[in-house]
Amino acid sequence: MVCSCNGTRNGRESTWRSMETLPIEILIKVLRDHGLPVSTLVECRLVCKNWMGIVDGPALRNKIWNKTVIVYDASTDDKAYFCCSDQWITRHITFASNLLVAADGGFLCFNKNLSTEFVLYNPVPDKFLTLNVPHEIDAIPTVINGMMKYMVVGLVVDPYTKHFTLLLGGVLLPDKRRSLIYDSETDTWSWVTHPFPPFNYRMEYNWRSVKGVECDGYLHWLVWDPRYLMKALLMFDLEEEKWYVLLEKVEMDKPGSLQMAAYEGYVCLLAMDWLPLDGEFDRRSYRGAFLQNPRVRAMDRALIGKTRDLWVGEEGRPFHLYTAGDSDAFFVFDEGYDDLEVAKYWAQFDLMFLLPDPPFREDHEFRFWRIPQEPHDPWCAIIPTPGVNAELEWVTQPQGELLEDPWGEDSPEAQGGGEEVQEGPGNEEAVALPREQT
């Protein structure tokens, strides 16, 4: 939704002036209490400074910026796509590091293979911050032949101050692996004193990992060796700055056979080695050694079973699960290994529905049951948040120079700035969702 009017330019300017003089209480009530989707609120921020202040302010923060959004990083064409329920928003990525490696607190973290550059990005204000790891810290080199190699990346963002911690675990040095932490409050990089867990020789060179999950002051990663059938739950205590690890030997393995998600205050694990011939779609449950950790539990069977309602006459389909810590969840289906479909479980209404067709559906990178040469999962879920920490040098992306103008130069859509909104021909009923309760 973009506020617009027909008629002459003078008429439109008069209408804008009238809207700007509306009492602040009425504006807050309209933006806060009418169940507007996140995509619409992002557009409303672009109307004027007063509207941006309202959308970003405390009157709307807890009410609005708590809706989980699915994110897709199309690194091949330098775009990122976002959807909450009824629309896909396209953001053009103008910085070079364009592989999504971590996410938390509404922020996304991008990197490029073997690069020392990390970029923090908040899609709501469309601002990014570039961090470069020094090639030497405390007289210890962080790179080998100009390249940085690490095992895991973790990001934790303070929801109130917007300060953040960025952790690089298992940075490869000539004789061992160590870990680096960036603290945005002090704007400094430092080595972690506690040693990085020593994996066996094989896992050192054949490892795969998933994006980190923060829970109860710890970062968690699943790390596995697909060649030698060994899994590890890697944990980092953010307060004590100490590493912990649980190892598990498996009899058989394939990519995606165990998934990890932050859900309702826990790190939840989901066994995904299900096949249609098994006939027990909603009975899959992880029962391995990682449940020894009190912050870890098996994924809710009832939630997984709800995906069957999307497919008439079928037991269900394999999917990847993405969450952001609350009770909402997204399910990415790769139907027939070709067509892409995304569904959302909206906990507030106990509702499962398909999102509109993704605009990148015909050319997406995601493929089930395949091992890419450079593992990269382009998906994640976030809870959008306005604002960044003003003490750091955040840069606003020059989106206006990149957008095409299919509507004409005078249209509100063309003047809107940094996004393209695409509804797509997908599940039309997804637009008519139940109104949120105040």
UniProtKB/TrEMBL annotation:
Q: Which Pfam families match?
A: F-box-like
User: Could you identify this protein by its name?
Assistant: F-box domain-containing protein
**Source species, domain of life:** Eukaryota
Domain F-box per the UniProt entry, residue ranges: 20-63
Membrane spanning stretches: none
Region (Disordered) residue ranges read 398-438
The organism encoding this protein is: Marchantia polymorpha (Common liverwort)
Question: Which Gene3D superfamilies does this entry report, sorted A to Z?
Answer: 1.20.1280.50
User: Which InterPro entries does the UniProt entry name for this protein?
Assistant: F-box-like_dom_sf (IPR036047), F-box_dom (IPR001810), Gal_Oxase/kelch_b-propeller (IPR011043), SCF_F-box_component (IPR050796)
